[in-house]
Amino acid sequence: MNELIPNQKGMTSLEIAEVTGKQHAHVMRDIRNLLSQGVAESNFGLGAYTDANGQERPLFNLTPKGCLILASGYDAVLRERIIDRLEYLENEKKAIQTPQTYLEALEALVASEKEKERMRIESEQQKKQIEQKDAKIAKIQPKADFADKAFAMEGKCDIGQAAKILGLPFGRNTLFKKLREAGVFFANRNEPKQKYIDAGYFEMKEKPIPRDNHPGFVVMVVLCTQKGLAYINYLFGGKRSDGKLMKIA
């Protein structure tokens, strides 16, 4: 049995993987993506555990807030599983910490009410953020065939949004991988080759990432144009969009 670092207040990344059915490596990747976006590191403490072969492996110890932040990026079913697990751990902790005196019981009651209020506020804020995110996704969901979807869309989108708009059976990271394998992106990095940028399929844009109490940093983001959506759709079995694709030299 694996030996986990105790995490009394939240969950470990291993527990998240077990609850959601995701691979632990994928949960670790999801957390690192959040940290790269500037999420406070205090919500994700780096630890370790010993696997079945006696080897030490890394994991993250998530606070309850960290669990909710991670859950916000998952679908409704996985979010519910994580929240259910948090509620179970909270009830289990309360059962263990049974007050022994009237004073302890009174203090526990006051603390419980404060904790409930704090969790209620956090839950409402998290729910609002999820609703806003879902609303944005719903706004760009396809309403007709591909031609209507791709060329009625204003502006540009990132690779993850492109996968959702096109209704692909995989997400952002898999799309990056397939574009690398197709030779559209460089084999060793998630960046389109210059000829596809020149063709107007993709753009590279600097995105500043602010961080509380830490210096901010800048990352390069790949943006997919409407032409790029048409090209990706064609790569994965869609129809050519009525000659709107520019020829690649």
Structure characterization notes:
- By secondary structure, the chain is an alpha+beta fold.
- The protein folds into three domains: 1-97, no CATH class; 100-139; 146-235, no CATH class.
- The protein has helices at 13-20, 24-36, 64-71, 76-96, 102-139, 146-152, 159-165, 172-181, 194-198, 226-235, and strands at 11-12, 44-50, 56-62, 157-158, 202-211, 214-224.
- It has a three-stranded antiparallel β-sheet. Strands 4-6-5 form a three-stranded antiparallel β-sheet.
- Strand 2 (44-50) and strand 3 form a beta hairpin.
- Helix 1 packs across helix 2, helix 3 (64-71) packs antiparallel against helix 4 (76-96) and helix 7 packs across helix 8 (172-181).
- It is elongated.
- The chain starts with 10 loop residues before the first strand and ends in a 14-residue tail after the last helix.
Low-pLDDT segments, ≥5 res: 1-8, 142-153, 240-249
The share of residues in helices is 40-55%
User: N-to-C terminal Cα separation, in Å?
Assistant: 56 Å
Give the SSE order as H and E letters: EHHEEHHHHEHHHEEH
Topology:
Blueprint: E1 11-12, H1 13-20, H2 24-36, E2 44-50, E3 56-62, H3 64-71, H4 76-96, H5 102-139, H6 146-152, E4 157-158, H7 159-165, H8 172-181, H9 194-198, E5 202-211, E6 214-224, H10 226-235
Antiparallel strand pairs: 1-3, 2-3, 4-6, 5-6
Helix pairs in contact: 1-2, 3-4, 6-10, 7-8
